[in-house]
UniProtKB/TrEMBL annotation:
Protein name: Zinc ribbon domain-containing protein
UniProt keyword terms in alphabetical order: Membrane, Transmembrane, Transmembrane helix
TM region(s), chain numbering: 25-44
Superkingdom: Bacteria
Length: 318
């Protein structure tokens, strides 16, 4: 008779899973990867994507005169001053020092930097961005706070900054929002007026640039020459539109001295022509009753000066 061993009792509990050596290796590798990723995320968020790195990147873009990159750090910023910043007349900030950064999701960075040999202290407002970088990280942006230049002049003339025209949005108000740096404000080149350029260090807040346009010395000489040509033509015309005329028969005019004329720029931007010293002319001919005439008279000059096709033009009255 054959005897069999009884089967062991069946446990009501699930036997714990016993990983194979291969499974243990896979678990260890996955765990290590997750730890590395978490550590890398922490390092990137805490070391690379920081308020400090945002401020440093912003000033680095200015050092490269890269307006597009600089504007990318600032909320609602414009690149309309790209040509102005790209000019070799633009002096970017140097020797940036971040003194402190305070706040939570909205911070304020207190910084100092140099514009040329002038040290500037400024505050830069920062905010934590809502959008994620690489789908994981919340970076920092600069919340406005750009400096500006308010430009004024004693007469309405065309303005340039660093040799470039004002952007369309600034031409009426003449208030130019800029990036930190040194700028040169001047009157646009034209044959009539000029002004000493004004250098502005725009570090923070609003700076003012006031221009004092004056008539160019060369403009005065050019107008004097045109007036003389005009008066020489009047010698042979004897018409009412000229500054001297006579009713005698067959008058012959001779200019003894030409008038001295001064040009003035008024508040409207128009050039006013003023006679500082009258000219003198002599007329000879036959008067009433056949008597010979030999008279002298003083005369002044009037009219305006305009710019046509880049050149000065004297326009007599009448």
């Amino acid at each position: 008779m054959v005897q069999t061993q009884p089967s062991p009792p069946v446990s009501p509990f699930v036997e714990p899973w016993q990983p194979t050596p291969r499974a243990k290796t896979i678990i260890a590798v996955v765990t290590a990867v997750l730890v590395v990723l978490c550590a890398a995320t922490y390092v990137i968020q805490r070391i690379w994507i920081t308020p400090e790195s945002t401020v440093e990147g912003y000033f680095g873009a200015l050092a490269d005169r890269d307006v597009t990159k600089a504007a990318s750090y600032i909320k609602d910023s414009s690149t309309s001053t790209a040509d102005i910043v790209a000019s070799d007349k633009y002096i970017p900030p140097t020797k940036l020092k971040i003194n402190s950064i305070d706040g939570d999701d909205e911070k304020t960075a207190k910084v100092s930097f140099f514009l040329g040999d002038q040290q500037v202290n400024a505050e830069i407002p920062l905010h934590r961005k809502k959008e994620l970088t690489l789908g994981l990280f919340r970076g920092w942006g600069i919340d406005g706070g750009q400096p500006s230049i308010q430009i004024s002049s004693s007469a309405p003339v065309e303005i340039q900054v660093n040799g470039k025209p004002l952007p369309p949005e600034s031409q009426e108000t003449r208030n130019l929002q800029v990036f930190p740096g040194r700028y040169v404000v001047s009157v646009a080149d034209n044959p009539l007026v000029e002004s000493a350029p004004v250098t502005i260090d725009a570090g923070s807040g609003e700076s003012e640039a006031t221009l004092e346009p004056q008539i160019k010395t060369g403009a005065q000489a050019a107008v004097d020459a045109q007036i003389k040509e005009y008066l020489k033509g009047c010698v042979t015309k004897n018409v009412d539109t000229c500054p001297f005329t006579s009713s005698i028969t067959k008058p012959v005019w001779r200019i003894d001295t030409y008038p001295t004329v001064e040009l003035h720029l008024d508040e409207s931007g128009s050039v006013q022509l003023e006679t500082a010293e009258d000219g003198k002319a002599t007329v000879t001919g036959t008067g009433y009753g056949g008597y010979p005439v030999d008279d002298s008279m003083s005369f002044d000059i009037s009219g305006s000066v305009v710019v046509e096709q880049g050149k000065l033009k004297y326009q007599p009255e009448g």
